[in-house]
Write a structure and sequence with these properties.
Keywords: DNA-binding, Transcription, Transcription regulation. InterPro entries: GntR_C, TF_FadR/GntR_C, Tscrpt_reg_HTH_GntR, WH-like_DNA-bd_sf, WH_DNA-bd_sf. This is GntR family transcriptional regulator. Residues 24-91 form the HTH gntR-type domain. With 243 residues, the protein is mainly α. Helix content is 67%, strand content 4%. The chain has ten helices and three strands, in the order H-E-H-H-E-E-H-H-H-H-H-H-H. A hairpin with a 3-residue loop joins strand 2 and strand 3 (85-87). The longest helix has 29 residues, at 214-242.
Length: 243
């Protein structure tokens, strides 16, 4: 069988959070679909992903799935396990601290670079994205948790794309992919606490961008990034105390 040919028939085991992929450039399409799912928190920390189930869900053979998982493992987004499977990394305090530090450094620099390049049209887009995200937060459930993740991603990458850095942008995409389990964990926390929202940091960031105040923009960004990580850390410590 051609390693890139799709498998006929319906999948035996469907994996939530994934869509089927087409024939063209299967290795790339499988990688892109897994990256999208990881970035938006479709998989829980510690979740085991079996190659056959992934292949069946996406309608492809094992080979492109194996290659995509290997690539994701080198990017620290997954861990290769025995028996044709991979695992989403566990969330630890050390990993939270490391990810938060890296994201603040890289994304902060992208914000500084974007400040003089953003236009009034960009600011209008950012305001519309934030308003839509705020609406989704106000009715947070499983469906809208995914929507808030996608809107949050669009908001940030509207800014980062304006920075014009071909070097830093792939790095921040990798960091967001590694942060996927944290996105999922924070969505659960936000869902349990309706009074919590990260959107106010977005409004502060927009105001700083419109004022061309790079340092204020970076401060708002750091507050936005660290809030979710702090909530997860606090939740983990409470859970450990209850145990």
């Amino acid at each position: 069988m051609d390693s890139t040919s799709p498998i006929a028939g319906p999948p035996d085991t469907a994996v939530p959070g994934l869509a089927r992929v087409g024939r063209a450039s299967l290795q790339t399409r499988v990688y892109d679909e897994l990256t999208r799912s990881l970035t938006h928190g479709a998989f829980a920390a510690g979740q085991v992903l079996r190659m056959q189930a992934l292949a069946d869900t996406m309608g492809v053979s094992i080979m492109p799935v194996r290659e995509a998982l290997g690539r994701l493992a080198t990017e620290r987004a997954l861990e290769i396990m025995p028996n044709r499977s991979a695992r989403v990394p566990l969330i630890t305090e050390e990993r939270l601290t490391d990810l938060a530090r890296a994201r603040c450094l890289v994304e902060g620099e992208l914000v500084r670079m974007a400040v003089p390049r953003l236009t009034p049209e960009d600011w209008a887009v950012l305001r519309a994205q934030t308003a839509e995200c705020e609406t989704a937060f106000n009715r947070l459930d499983e469906e809208h948790a995914s929507q808030t993740s996608q809107l949050n991603h669009q908001f940030h990458f509207t800014i980062y794309g304006a920075a014009g850095s071909d070097v830093l942008l792939p790095i921040v995409r990798s960091l967001w992919m590694q942060s996927g389990p944290c996105v999922r964990a924070s969505a659960i926390i936000y869902g349990r606490n309706p009074s919590l929202t990260a959107v106010h940091h977005h409004w502060a960031l927009i105001e700083a961008l419109e004022a061309r105040d790079a340092e204020a923009a970076v401060r708002a960004l750091h507050a936005d990034i660290t809030q979710s990580f702090a909530l997860i850390r606090e939740d983990m410590r409470k859970a450990a105390g209850d145990g």
